[in-house]
Design a protein that fits this description.
The protein is of the alpha/beta class. The protein folds into two domains: 120 residues, 3-Layer(aba) Sandwich (Rossmann fold), CATH 3.40.50; 232 residues, Dihydrodipicolinate Reductase, domain 2 (2-Layer Sandwich), CATH 3.30.360.10. Helix content is 39%, strand content 24%. It is built from eleven helices and 14 strands. The strands form two sheets. An eight-stranded mixed sheet has the order 8-9-10-7-11-12-13-14, with helices on one face. The chain has a six-stranded parallel sheet with strand order 3-2-1-4-5-6, with helices on both faces. A hairpin with a 4-residue loop joins strand 8 and strand 9. The protein is globular. The chain starts with a strand and ends in an 8-residue tail after the last helix.
Length: 389
């Protein structure tokens, strides 16, 4: 393998325009950005003018170029097909989250990866956040005193940050292409869940769980693994606020602790807050993440403990390293030096299994606004309890 990896980007939405394309260009000692595939003419024009990068109307045209790897940042429902297509050409793959909707799709990618013998890394950038890495080091040696894990996210979506980054919105695609995308997404979600969900469950699962909360699920599982906490039992889940909110509760350690997670879009408030906190009997360890669209805003890592009546709060700031850049550096290292992949397909499968089972829990309770048939509720309930079953 040459020192510089020849890479193509599939998809030129905001995450590619704001993060992946400029970061690949920044890492020019490691990557050669061959081109970007995107069906939107306006986005292609922006990428060509702003970054000086060749563009292609689809991934087939891009894959006709000499490549070593692809970075997939196209819509969620395309991730499985684009990943498998790249692996069939024995290319290395970096794929944005969610890698897929369900474990059945992850198994297909695992098989394709095995056949290709190449690297597949999932874009969970929080695992490369310096504060997250420092948090792993601060955790106690066991979970004996763990009582509660809290994940809370309020998110305005991307609109407050459009003025921060130059961009071109992808808003010129033909309706037939959009309709085909919606149908593909609905089909994959039904395959992942094992039944045809009601519209609100399909929307909540695809958007709140898989496109948003999955980041925090993956990060929290990493913290729990460090503590030696096994997968727990789902005891609550819901979609609310007309699909803008999704939540779940997992019982850990046989009831010694609970993990509660919530993601809510607050569309008219330009405020982003993302917090993961672990409560022990003798300390609280908290991570507060900035908006992912604001580069080099350090994540706040704090530890609160008491000495008698005196409360002490210690804040740790390891450095100003950018997680989006560091994950690409790690991808290059796995390709060029054989370094272990930190964010694997197997981890993504585990994340999606949990999210699928939370959606099944909602369906089994029959709480969807449109309602569900008795047969669907019974089928869903069969696998709604365990976090990973």
């Amino acid at each position: 393998m040459r020192d510089r990896v020849r890479i193509g980007v599939v998809g030129a939405g905001l995450i590619a325009q704001w993060e992946h394309i400029p970061n690949l260009l920044r890492l020019s000692d490691r990557f050669v950005l061959v081109g970007v595939a995107e069906p939107s003419a306006s986005a292609r024009d922006f990428v060509s003018r702003h970054f000086g990068v060749p563009t292609f109307p689809d991934s087939d045209a891009l894959l006709g170029e000499p490549l070593d790897a692809v970075l997939i940042a196209s819509p969620d429902f395309t991730h499985v097909d684009e990943t498998v297509k790249a692996l069939s050409r024995r290319l290395h793959v970096f794929c944005e989250k969610p890698l897929c909707y369900g474990p059945v799709h992850a198994e297909a990618i695992i098989a394709a990866r095995k056949e290709a013998g190449t690297v597949v890394q999932v874009g969970y950038m929080k695992r490369y956040d310096p504060a997250y890495e420092a948090c792993l080091e601060l955790l106690p040696d066991s979970a004996a005193k763990l009582s509660y894990v809290s994940v809370e996210v309020n998110d305005p979506d991307s609109w407050p940050y459009v003025e921060v980054h130059p961009c071109a919105l992808v808003n010129d695609l033909p309706e037939e292409m959009l309709a085909a995308g919606r149908a593909a997404k609905a089909r994959q979600i039904a395959e992942a869940l094992g039944f045809e969900p009601a519209p609100d469950i399909r929307r909540g699962f695809g958007d709140r769980y898989c496109s948003s909360l999955v980041h925090d699920v993956n990060a929290t599982i990493g913290l729990l693994d460090r503590l030696g906490v096994p997968d727990g039992e789902i005891v609550g889940a819901d979609f609310f606020a007309d699909g803008r909110g999704g939540l779940g509760t997992v019982r850990l350690l046989g009831g010694q602790a609970d993990w509660q997670m919530t993601h809510l879009v607050v569309p008219a408030v330009a405020d982003y807050s993302e917090r993961i906190a672990l409560y022990f009997e003798d300390r609280i360890i908290e991570l507060v993440f900035p908006s992912p669209y604001l580069n080099h805003f350090p994540t706040r890592l704090a530890v609160r403990q008491s000495d008698g009546r005196r409360l002490e709060t210690r804040e740790i700031r390891p450095d100003y390293g950018e997680a989006f850049v560091r994950e690409l550096e790690a991808f290059w290292s796995s390709i060029a030096t054989g370094a272990p992949v930190r964010n694997t397909v197997e981890q993504a499968k585990r994340d999606q299994t949990l999210l699928c089972n939370m959606a099944r829990y909602v369906a089994s309770r029959g709480t969807s606004a449109e309602g569900k048939g008795k047969g669907d509720r019974e089928a869903s309930a069969q696998s709604a309890g365990s976090a990973v079953a």
